[in-house]
Specification:
With 613 residues, this protein is of the alpha/beta class. Helices cover 50% and strands 10% of the residues.
Length: 613
């Protein structure tokens, strides 16, 4: 049995990859108390102190045995009954608290000598967190000191990560995160100093000095104290323009002469093409850490990030790329293919070669020559390539790293399974606390706190789409008088949800249109099937009937259906049942009305239940 117990947020239990609801708050507290003392015997009196905030009731022992019996039905022999006590046996990696502390220790050890490794490891440590530790459990129990200590450790690791990123020259990208950190924790002197140094290294000395004044005023107002000697010393050094405050990059590696080639190598241009890192980044820290770890730990390094339209793929990849940028001093190239099937591998190579300083007139006409020249140029370069909007593996196959120098990140809706030797990171729909936090980041937390039920329903109506959540939050921010319940009502009862999920230059419909168009142009049957599924009621013989309706074989229809699943336009469930994500269904239903493709339903009524294959 493989367990995963998560305490760094709400208490969660997974058994063999399946999420199991632990039960009411008291039962979750019992599980948390045993997990915090994993592989140690916990007496019933000690367990009672962890569960009840005040004096335990006379029925405490009986209640604990009832909760333990319920947990044993899930945990089996992992929960061992002792005389008047219990022991929960966990293996390494099964408790997020232990993983966080292990990764934090490893990252701390790497900080001085290997900033890039420290960044990857500390990012992975923070990715274990989903909210406040022990969220939703009774407060005032014997576990409270543990939760407080863990929350403090989280803040320390954030600041240690910021220190490593400053050492790697990522000062510009740290600014929004440090400001957000200090807005939530204004008494963290170390973070005040880090914000000052980041601004100073960005060349904004007046802003850095203003931050010191803000820190001093905050500490005086809330604690009645002056800043410590480290913050004061940093301020004094900035006033004197101390040379040791400047960022000094690590020495560039020695580059030997590349292999002989038929054309002269151009003068090397160091590209810095990454878009700005997103100022608001919520709910994808775990996946970002996976990308960072894939680039830091593999040779050659290549990763594919796949997910539905609007799932936040591009923002995640840009953030991860900025985190590791310091490890690629020879440059970062960013290419957006726009999900166009017509973009050929040769065109992609030409764009990359031009970014590396090859004059347009010198780019070879032959795709194989372009690929060979590209490999020669980057063989010994620490270069990061990011290719967004990829629809086919062939478009990026020539860019796969052939040695330890370059690294590649590919972004698209498909997993591109034929690419060999790559790591894959899949973005799932955003729900629960992360979805709420993303809404709050754009709308303002006070709007959601005022009506938590409406906020939860708004997150649900956004169907796990990062783009939809961002648009909904932006709509609320742009209309302060609009109640959250009003937007919920419009989305639930309005004639067209996709019309409401558009704001300024952001549009869920436009995002879906790009992804669906790529699938339709690649496989006409898949496009017609998607429309049919959008208006098709549940039917036990869907494939046979749909195949007849679309004029293709059942085997051909299955291939089209699997293509839709790979493109994250259809979800495959248990027992061969398939469903359309809510927003995809809305868009595909529009297409079914607009297109001349014959996609009449098998019956006269319109419905959107799961589909049986």
């Amino acid at each position: 049995m493989k367990l995963q117990i998560r305490l760094l947020g709400s208490v969660e239990l997974c058994v063999d990859g399946r999420t199991v609801t632990p039960g009411a708050a008291k039962r979750r507290a019992v599980l948390a108390g045993l997990a915090m003392e994993a592989n140690h015997v916990v007496s019933l009196p000690r367990l009672a102190e962890m569960v009840w905030p005040e004096t335990p009731p006379t029925s405490a022992v009986a209640n604990l045995r009832t909760h333990a019996a319920a947990l044993r039905r899930v945990l089996g022999d992992r929960l061992v009954a002792r005389p008047n006590a219990y022991e929960l046996r966990l293996a390494p990696g099964e408790l997020d608290v232990a993983e966080f502390q292990r990764l934090a220790g490893e990252g701390r050890a790497l900080a001085a000598a290997e900033p890039a490794g420290a960044i990857a490891t500390l990012s992975a440590a923070l990715a274990q967190w989903r909210g406040l530790s022990g969220d939703g459990l009774p407060r005032g129990t014997a576990l409270d000191n543990r939760w407080t200590t863990l929350d403090e450790q989280r803040l320390q690791v954030f600041e240690e990560l910021a220190e490593a990123r400053l050492a790697a020259g990522q000062h510009g990208h740290l600014l929004p995160e440090l400001r957000g950190h200090l807005a939530a924790h204004p008494l963290r002197e170390r973070a005040w100093g880090q914000l000052m140094l980041a601004l100073y290294r960005c060349g904004d000395v007046p802003a850095a000095l203003t931050v010191f004044r803000d820190a001093r005023a905050t500490l005086h107002e809330q604690l009645g104290i002056e800043p410590g000697k480290e913050l004061v010393g940093l301020h004094r050094a900035m006033l004197g323009r101390a040379p040791e405050l400047a960022y000094i990059p690590a020495a560039a590696p020695i580059v030997t002469t590349p292999p002989a080639q038929t054309r002269p190598a151009p003068g090397w241009t160091v590209p810095r093409e990454l878009p700005a890192t997103p100022a608001t980044f919520v709910g994808r820290t775990g996946e970002a850490a996976e990308v960072v770890a894939a680039l830091a730990g593999a040779t050659p390094a290549a990763v594919v990030v796949a997910g539905a339209a609007g799932s936040g793929k591009s923002a995640l990849v840009v953030r991860a790329a900025h985190i590791v940028a310091g490890d690629f001093p020879d440059g970062q190239v960013f290419v957006d293919l726009g999900y166009e099937n017509a973009v050929t591998p040769g065109e992609v190579l030409a764009r990359v070669l031009r970014a590396l300083g090859v004059a347009p007139a010198d780019v070879p006409a032959n795709t194989d020559e372009r690929a060979g020249w590209f490999r020669s140029l980057v063989a010994r370069r620490r270069l990061l390539l990011v290719v967004d909007g990829v629809t086919r593996a062939a478009q990026v196959r020539p860019l796969l790293p052939a040695g330890p120098g370059p690294a590649l990140i590919v972004v698209g809706q498909r997993h591109l399974g034929s690419l060999d030797g790559v790591r894959r990171v899949t973005l799932r729909p955003l729900d629960g606390v992360p979805a709420h936090d993303l809404l709050a980041a754009f709308a303002g937390p006070e709007r959601l706190v005022a009506d938590p039920a409406a906020a939860a329903e708004l997150a649900r109506l956004c169907a796990g789409s990062v783009l939809a959540l961002r648009i909904a939050g932006s709509r609320l921010a742009g209309c302060p008088a609009m109640p959250v319940a009003g937007l919920v009502s419009d989305l639930r009862h309005g004639p067209d949800r996709l019309d409401l999920l558009a704001y300024e230059d952001l549009s869920v419909r436009a995002s879906l249109a790009v992804g669906v168009a790529a699938v339709r142009s690649d496989d006409e049957v898949a496009g017609r099937l998607l429309e049919l599924l959008a208006i098709q009621p549940d039917h036990p013989a869907l494939l046979d009937r749909a195949a007849t309706q679309l004029g293709v074989s059942t085997q051909r229809l299955r291939r089209a259906l699997e293509g839709l699943v790979d493109a994250h336009l259809v979800h495959r469930g248990a027992a061969g049942r398939y469903t359309l994500p809510a927003l995809v269904r809305d868009y595909a239903a529009e297409l079914a009305v607009l297109t001349s493709t014959p996609t009449r339903p098998l019956t006269g009524r319109r419905a959107h239940p799961p589909v049986a294959a």
